[in-house]
Protein: Argininosuccinate lyase
Organism: Rhodopirellula europaea 6C
Amino acid sequence: MASPSRSGVFQAETDARLEAYAESISFDSRLYEHDIRGSIAHANMLRDVDLLTEEEFKLIKDTLETIRGELDRGELPMRFELEDIHMHVEQALIDRIGDTGRKLHTARSRNDQVSTDTRMWIRQSLDEIDALLVDLQAAFLSRCENDFDVVLPAYTHLQRAQPVLAPHYWLAYIEKLERDRQRIADCRKRVNQCSLGIAAVAGTTLPIDRQHTASALDFEGITANSLDTSSDRDFVVESTFVMSLIASHLSGWAEEWILWSTVEFDFIQIPQAFCTGSSIMPQKVNPDTLELTRGKSARVMGALQTLMLLIKNLPLAYNRDLQEDKPPLFDAFDTTRAMLELAAPIVRGAELKRESIAARIEKGYLDATTLMEWMIARGMPQRTAHHLVGAIVSEAMQQGVTLSDLPLETYQKLSDQIDESVYEVLGTANAIAAFRSEGSTAPARVREQIKLWTSRLENA
Ligand code: ARG
């Protein structure tokens, strides 16, 4: 069957190879619910401005609902020769109700239709991803109480830096995920503008009411310029960027926990339900889920690159290139969703290896900066204190001991400003207790943050 988009102007049949090359129904069929919802709202508006009669509207609406039911149940096989889901639904309508069905596309083009359907799909998907982000935040938060007594090394350059409470780590991820949520909310505003009614590119001479359709579809408003709207895929790129940053956060976390689950770190046990074995090495319990999270993030970021390249050379307005936006868009969202769905149970189920962590927590001079600040608080210039503590650490390294193990004579040999009270800030437990600043790992600050997030997530 010839595509309904080929008008009477065509004198030749479509080459069979073009049909296969140009179809998008194999991937855009998942827009069908939004497409039908958009069509019903459009028809409703056409009725209100007297472009359809009440009976015509009713017939269109009822038939579209029947078609939706058939699509829900997989009873309406996809027709690839109809190019895309939009033509597929419209043709099913025309097949059933003839000329009345032929009126649905009044004052509409697939250009505004595709854009609107995609906006509705992204809007819903953003909301779903947002809920998964909240769940992952809740998973991290749920660990905080139980892990409060665990001190972990904080790293910079993957070298031991300063001691932090384990919940300080969990709260760090909660903050990253919160920025992801903010980006979703911000991006959603630009997604949530209705394109319907710009028709192909210049608008329409027919007396449509765009606001009417927009509010029926729960859009915040309508897009302002038909040329811009016909060409615009910023909302696709932007929402995929938001997914990319989520994926990047998850990938960094996955990498961290992969390292932490090695014999070398031995900080954490990943739940076995999310690990796999080896077909040859019987002892292996591999953190494949986390490796896949790290690996799959590449797909999401790749999708963003594809979309950036897709739009960069397009003159106004709609160009068929834009049909290629959907595979990367869908893949970015599907992949991010899958990553989030698995991250939450891993976070909830993982166990810190307290003894192993504690056995080595005094290694690496995590309290050196605290000692330096103790000197500063006693009036020593920072640079001087920095140099002095470096010398003290060097002495401790040579003796193979910790700072708290160094005898007072050694301290006093290096500085006459040190007395017995220095031991009050040495050792990781003392160092942790000495923190004060906002945003620090001070136990009281961390408690405050846990409380804050508990109430925020209750209301999320
Ligand atoms: N399947 C196309 C897409 O997704 C539909 C738009 C076709 N418009 C056109 N002028 N050929 O972008």
The longest strand covers residues 159-165. The domain at 16-106 is CATH 1.10.275.10 (Fumarase C; Chain B, domain 1). The CA atoms of residues 379 and 457 lie 43 Å apart. The chain has 19 helices and six strands.
